[in-house]
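Ticket #374: bound-state structure for 4'-deoxy-4'-aminopyridoxal-5'-phosphate.
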Amino acid sequence: MTTTHDTQAPAADAPRDPSEQLPRFREAVSGLVNYRPQKPALSPEGRSYPLAANETPFGTLPKVAEAIAEAAAGINRYPDNGGQALVAEIAERFGLDPEGLMLGCGSVGVAQQLITAVAGPGDEVLYAWPSFEAYPILTRLAGATSVQVELREGVHDLTAMADRVTDRTRLVFVCNPNNPTGTVVGRTELEEFLDRVPAGCLVVLDEAYYEYVRDTGTPDGLSLLPGRPGLVVLRTFSKAYGLAGLRIGYAAGDPRVIGTLRKAYLPYSAGSVAQAAAVAALRSGGEVRRRTDVITAERTRVTDALRKLGWRVPESEANFLWLPLGERAAAFGAHCASAGISVRAVPGTGVRVTLGLPADNDAFLAAATAFPPS
Ligand code: PMP
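RESOLUTION: The complex was predicted; output attached.
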């Protein structure tokens, strides 16, 4: 179990030089691996294809650029801490109660607020694995314990997850579509799962890639909210809406639950420029839909091409594909990098590749074709 505080006495041989005496950190923090910036891959011809971070390849939406310019004039002022204009826009667009909405610094910021609000030392946070890499980090930072349930054939095993819920489980993440596999769980199985989770445990349905879903059997998490106070849906403006650099996301849920969760809000963490940009992004819904249509068409084309080459590719409903290459993952990642293509390689497991514009994807397919088959 992860402990919150390092209670050891200072070591007898602690350095006497005051400049050598560092503060004592919680083990939860000192035990984490530091972030290491990755250089973008560059081909011998100087080309670079950023397919590692699940971003949209499209530039800033025109209305968003205008809103940013306007909001920039007022950044000497603090943002609206309640984010009322954005909250009202989300509520109206999706037919939600504004009291059931909470903003945050990206959906990862919101996820941290959710964990902080419900879990601490001795509590468990349950999620599938592999899934979004921030879940174990945020759990650890809260001093809580991660319980990971392996995916079954690349898909959430909701039955096994429900079996692992104990009276110590405070939060369950369900990532739909799942990062890194792109796979989805359907409405019926998700509803059955939600019915099995005991009251008192928060279920967070992370729908960061919702706008890329075209499978009609995959539920819109917002439609599952009525009558389920234990469910919260996470959404972000970082992916389809193209605001990854601005850091804004939100949670939707029962107003009574969100009302309490909001107490864990890091003041002013949803900035004013980000809020204004998000309103404009929501008002650009038609263009967002056209852009996601391009990516989902590319998803079909690239999946088919890879399968024709003999690659195993799970069905993705997100803007990326997962290649379960196992021991060959690192070699394929390096092979892509040498062609200027940045992908996310998880050594020993697989490679996640973001779908870009057709020319980016062609470059990736050329690299995949040239990779020696196993
Ligand atoms: N959830 C999932 C599943 C993700 O993949 C990501 C981004 N990689 C996030 C949440 C966080 O996105 P953001 O903080 O930019 O909203």
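RESOLUTION NOTES: Residues 162 and 197 are 6 Å apart (CA to CA).
TICKET STATUS: resolved
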